[in-house]
Amino acid sequence: MLLRIVIAIFLGIVLGRIMPLWLLSVFTTFNAVFSSWLKFLIPLIIVGLVMPAIADIGKSAGRLLTITVCIAYGSTVISGMFSYAVSSSVFPHLITPSAVSAVGGATDPVAPPYFTLAIPPLLDVMSALVLAFVAGLGMAYMGLDKMKGVADDFRLLVQKAIGVAVIPLLPLYIFGIFAEMTRSGQAWHIVMTFAAIIGIIFAMHLALLLLQYCIAGGIVRRNPLRLLATMLPAYFTALGTSSSAATIPVTMRQVVRMGVEEDVAGFTVPLCATIHMSGSCMKITACAVALMLMQGLPFSTGMFVGFVWMLGVMMVASPGVPGGAIMASLGVLASMLGFSEQQQALMIALYIAMDSFGTACNVTGDGAIALVVDRIHRRE
Fold first, then answer.
1. Which of 173, 181, 192, 314 is surrounded by the fewest CB atoms within 10 Å?
2. CB 199 within 8 A of CB 288
3. Using CA atoms, how far apart are residues 274 and 55, in angstroms rounded to an integer?
4. Which of 271, 299, 329 lies closest to 42 in space, CA to CA?
5. Predicted confidence pLDDT, tens digits, the chain (380 residues)
6. Structural domains of the chain ordered from first start
7. What is each CA distance from 111 to 24, 37, 180, in whole angstroms?
8. Which residues make Cβ contacts (< 8 Å) with residue 342, sequence separation at least 6?
9. DSSP 3-state helix, strand, coil percentages of the chain (rounded to 5)?
């Protein structure tokens, strides 16, 4: 997927300038229809993925579950706020006013689509999220097994729709976006600006992991650097697979090698692979700040506090979505930050470009949570 996205961006930049307007209009027409399809699908993604995920978490209720969920969610939110603090302080020095004006202005006419197709969503984003919470908690606490079966089947349907009719088309969608931006003179400035931003985000990932293991090491009274070194096989496995689920066996093995009881490891690692998305939240927050700075969109700390808290909830759905957390977060980006279809496409491209690093950060951080939960369990 990463290779296809890189090729799509490269071809969009190279061919966008020389492509005839009639052919560019073909791609802008596809993008118009595809963006309408995404708008329709986003509420279904929320209902279909968040609802059964909440039901599954609630069904395993218990003290350790509550503790693990609170720590994982808190880590994700702290990661997002840390990312916002660094991004809002550093990025304005990288994204200059000239870059913003260059991105915002079009130097050549952009080919309009031949037609558009409106596909109204069945629910808005907030209604879908509330419905997912109410139905998910109801299924968990009332034991509605038949409804849970329907929800699980609907989740499979949504996942199939994403895997068949969204993910394979993303390279074509991103190609059209970058071809259009190249014709308007925007693409070069975006690529050069994001190169520095990606480096800063990677540095933030490393700082976050050091912070997580310093806290966990202090709680269990062990050397945090040795603990972090023990988790390196899980880090590199996630780096190669870009999948938290595929890395679970390695993560559990390394967590046990850190001294965590096997029962606790078997409980915390699969759960955290579903709900602990600190690296993903960091990436999405940083890229959102960068795009808003680049395109001159106003933002505030209060806006991003609400965004990060809601994003932490949306991350619960991300492991079930091929392509990562960015697909589950598109609705929040649009509803809370006002992102357009073009900005959402850029977020997808940026996220996938760093997908493996975010997954590795998520997985490695799971080990720190397992250490803390194991310490609490031993004291009981």
1. 192
2. no
3. 13
4. 329
5. 557 777 887 888 888 888 888 898 999 899 889 888 888 887 887 788 778 867 775 554 456 777 888 898 899 999 999 999 999 999 888 876 555 544 444 444 467 888 888 888 888 766 887 788 788 878 877 888 899 899 889 988 987 887 788 778 878 887 887 788 777 665 556 666 667 787 888 899 999 999 999 999 999 999 999 999 999 988 887 876 666 766 777 888 899 999 988 878 877 887 787 778 898 899 889 988 988 887 778 888 999 999 999 888 877 655 544 455 777 787 788 888 888 877 787 787 777 767 778 888 999 999 999 999 889 887 76
6. 2-379 (1.10.3860)
7. 6, 21, 8
8. 177, 181
9. 85, 0, 15
User: Residue 226 corresponds to which tokens in the numbers above?
Assistant: 């040795």
The candidate with the shortest Cα–Cα distance to 171, out of 363, 353, 376, is 353
User: What would the two tokens of residue 51 be?
Assistant: 């609802």
Query: Mapping DSSP to helix (H, G, I), strand (E, B) and coil, where does residue 19 land?
Result: coil
d(CA 317, CA 330): 12
- Inter-CA distances, 165 with 103, 160, 169, 258, 322, Å: 30, 8, 7, 42, 11
User: What are the DSSP calls for 278-315, one per residue?
Assistant: HHHHHHHHHHHHHHHHHTT----HHHHHHHHHHHHHHG
* Contact call for residues 27 and 176 (beta carbons, < 8 A): yes
Residues in the chain, total: 380
At position 52, the amino acid (one-letter code) is P
Alpha helices in the chain (DSSP H): 2-16, 21-45, 51-59, 63-94, 97-104, 125-142, 145-165, 170-183, 187-220, 224-230, 232-241, 244-257, 262-275, 278-294, 301-314, 325-337, 341-353, 355-379
Give Cα 336 to chain centroid, integer Å.
15
359, amino acid identity: T
CA–CA dist 327, 348 (Å, integer): 8
- Of the candidates 19, 37, 21, 23, the residue with the CA atom closest to the CA atom of residue 116: 37
Two tokens at 289? 């700040």
Instruction: Judge whether 186 and 40 are in contact, CB under 8 Å.
Output: no
- Residues 154 and 48 sit within 8 Å (Cβ to Cβ): yes
Residue showing tokens 């963006």: 35
